[in-house]
Amino acid sequence: MKKHEVIHFYKSGGYNHLVDVSVDDNLFAAVTFTKDEMEKIVKKYPLAKDSLFALVDGVEIKLKDLTHSKES
What we know:
This protein is of the alpha+beta class. The protein is about 20% helix and about 30% strand. The chain has helices at about 25-30, 35-45, and strands at about 5-10, 15-20, 50-55, 60. Strands 2-1-3-4 form a four-stranded antiparallel beta sheet. The termini are far apart.
């Protein structure tokens, strides 16, 4: 199985800010977070709320914030 390069970041003030998010080698886990995981990320990086992205093999993916979603 191919190992993917994944970089997490948030956008603020016209800049991309790296986020230290520890994930395993599972690509799905690298782009999806539980409500609890997302709350921890936003607590550590408040500006990442509603602005968290993953760069996967050069493709930018906006990650959904479930911390205030009714479905979660």
